[in-house]
Amino acid sequence: MTFIEQPLLVTTVGDDRTIVLPDSIPSGATIGIVVLSDRPKRKLTRKERFKAALTEIEAAIIRSQQEPIDLPADAEFNALIERARKEPHAHRS
């Protein structure tokens, strides 16, 4: 049997345990399935968590440059700060 290299497809198993594939995959095609875990096999170190957060922040900055978002007016921003100050915090006793 000869295998021809194909592009990698990533999908999620549905609640009914089906896998949806694009129409470019013909019926009866032989496919391989690899289960990818969303859970890390170990806890991330503080440095790894920081690096992951920094990566997300950088991605958000790039997205905001491509699709700018409306910023709240000063009054709205001040109201959000006041509301946050009034809400209970878990670390306070």
From the spread of the alpha carbons, the general shape counts as elongated
Estimated helix fraction: 25-40%
Major sheet: size, sense and barrel closure? Answer: none
Number of helical segments with 4 or more residues: 2
Radius of gyration: 23 Å
Indicate the mean pLDDT: 79
Q: What structural class do the secondary elements suggest?
A: mainly alpha
- SSE run: HH
Notes on the structure:
With 93 residues, this protein is mainly alpha-helical. The protein has a domain at 46-86. It contains two helices and no strands. The chain has helices spanning 46-66, 74-86. The model has no long low-confidence stretch (mean pLDDT 79).
Tell me briefly what this model is.
The chain is mainly alpha-helical.
Features:
single chain; 93 residues; mainly alpha; 2 helices; elongated
Topology (SSEs and partners):
Blueprint: H1 46-66, H2 74-86
